[in-house]
Write a structure and sequence with these properties.
- The complex is a heterodimer.
- Chain A is built from six helices and 19 strands.
- Chain A has two domains: 4-114 and 236-302, FAD/NAD(P)-binding domain, CATH 3.50.50; 130-232, FAD/NAD(P)-binding domain, CATH 3.50.50.60.
- By secondary structure, chain A is α/β, with parallel strands linked by helices.
- In chain A, helix 1 packs parallel to helix 2, helix 1 crosses helix 6 and helix 4 (153-163) runs parallel beside helix 5.
- In chain A, helix 1 (14-25) links the parallel strand 1 (4-12) and strand 2.
- In chain A, the strands form five sheets. In chain A, strands 1, 2, 5, 6, 7, 8 and 19 form a seven-stranded mixed beta sheet that branches. Chain A has a five-stranded parallel beta sheet with strand order 10-17-11-12-13, with helices on one face.
- By secondary structure, chain B is α+β, with helices and mostly antiparallel strands.
- Chain B has a domain at 1-50: Glutaredoxin (3-Layer(aba) Sandwich).
- Helix content of chain B is 41%, strand content 22%.
- A four-stranded mixed beta sheet of chain B has the order 2-1-3-4, with helices on both faces.
- In chain B, a hairpin with a 2-residue loop joins strand 3 and strand 4.
- Chain B starts with a strand and ends with a helix.
- The relative contact order of chain B is 0.25.
- The chains are: A alpha/beta, B alpha+beta.
- The A-B interface holds A 36, 38, 42-43, 57-59, 62-63, 78-79, 127-129, 131, 133, 135-140, 142-143, 209-210, 229 and B 10, 12-17, 21, 35-36, 39, 42, 46, 50-54, 65, 67-70.
Chain lengths: 303, 78
């Protein structure tokens, strides 16, 4: 018969890792299943608001989280993606792309991922000029012409990272004005390399084996811009598709109460995948701790 | 025999860092290539991998795209 864990934590970002640390200290029999370790924290730039660190980079903080988690002796399934989470007779069943698991309690802490454009050419040119990570792939576009899609903080941040190295930047913004912070807007407007297209949407990505151009519609007028790089920065969506039975809000975030309980007994959720107000590393970590304490209480009443 | 390993990456990319840590923890030596600093090496990486994201890992001529532990372990183990 298949082993039944006390607790399975799905995801290993700030919420999942904090939950795992608390659970390990409570000597629960746990398993962590995750695609990657560190989650969005790994992608963050400079962090100056995580208490105890006056200044730390995202990757460094993520490494510290991981080291803390690995101090304890429990199993971590990395590079594994949860496909299904279901409840049956007070037991929970998890199906991944590699295996099946069974547990008494689960914490969903699977976070968020980059929102895609959903236009022709996007899948084809992914990593072939089209990217969702300016910090990673930006330097490969030195001297090239690029488009940044979006008008919020992450788009402007990407544009500012690219300004120093690329030849030309087109910002393709859906609304009638940029929405990112004023300081960033000023810097961007002052730079001659940048052209801003407001009220514009992406229609198609064009190219051969790599991106060569982007087709946009500006105020109902179609334009094709020659670019070799496209940086998509149009926000995030929760990784919540596998949890079909859980109640979600209109943003596809899992609805939890103050104790991190979902609508299904035994399933808790924490961090950016939930409807918790404010998405911050420190909040996600705190939510992870709350969720596991609730889960621990639930388990002790159940036994 | 020691395998010939190259890591193409850029500074500040979290998965490049993770890849290097992973190899170091296995006690393996590798050539650390910064494609942000050298345009020709960036071209070489794009040509070899047929794509434009980092990291790219080359193990005895075989290419791994991204921090793919399983694939790296397979290539290192055989």
């Amino acid at each position: 018969m298949k082993k039944i864990y006390d607790l399975i934590i799905i995801g290993a970002g700030p919420a999942g890792i904090t939950a795992a640390v608390y659970a390990a200290r409570k000597k629960m029999d746990i398993l962590v299943i995750t695609k990657d370790i560190g989650g969005q924290a790994s992608w963050s730039g400079d962090i100056q608001n995580y208490t105890g660190y006056q200044f730390i980079s995202g990757p460094e903080l993520a490494v510290k989280f991981e080291e803390h988690m690995r101090k304890f002796d429990f199993e971590i399934k990395e590079n594994e993606e949860v496909k299904e989470l279901t409840s049956q007779n007070e037991n929970l069943f998890i199906k991944t792309d590699k295996d099946n698991y069974q547990t008494k309690v689960a914490i969903v802490a699977s976070g968020k991922k980059s929102r895609e454009l959903g236009v022709p050419g996007e899948q084809e040119f992914k990593n072939k000029g089209l990217t969702y990570c300016a910090t990673c792939d930006g330097p490969l576009f030195a001297g090239r012409d690029v488009a940044v899609i979006g008008g919020g903080n992450s788009a402007l941040d990407a544009a500012l990272q690219l300004i120093k190295i690329v030849n030309r930047i087109y910002i393709i913004n859906f609304t009638d004005n940029l929405t990112g912070d004023g300081i960033m807007q000023e810097k961007i407007r002052a730079n001659k390399k940048v052209s801003i297209f407001n009220n514009s949407r992406v229609k198609e990505i064009l190219g051969d084996s790599f991106v060569q151009a982007i087709k946009i519609e500006e105020d109902k007028e179609e334009k094709t811009l020659d670019v070799q790089g496209i940086f998509v920065e149009i926000g995030l969506i929760p990784n919540s598709d596998f949890a079909v039975d859980l109640e979600k809000n209109e943003r596809k975030e899992i609805v939890v109460n103050q104790r991190n309980e979902t609508n299904i007994p035994g399933i808790f959720a924490a961090g950016d995948v939930t409807n918790v107000p404010e998405k911050q590393i420190i909040i996600a970590a705190g939510e992870g701790a709350k969720a596991v304490l609730s889960a621990f209480r639930y388990l002790s009443t159940r036994k | 025999m020691d395998k010939k390993i190259k890591v193409y990456g850029v500074p500040g990319c979290p998965f490049c860092k993770k890849t290097k840590e992973f190899l170091k923890n296995k006690g393996l030596n590798f050539e650390d290539i910064d494609v942000a600093a050298d345009h020709d090496l960036a071209k070489e990486m794009i040509k070899k991998s047929g794509q434009m994201s980092v990291p790219v890992i080359e193990i005895d001529g075989k290419i791994v795209i991204g921090f793919d532990k399983g694939k790296m372990e397979n290539l290192l183990g055989s």
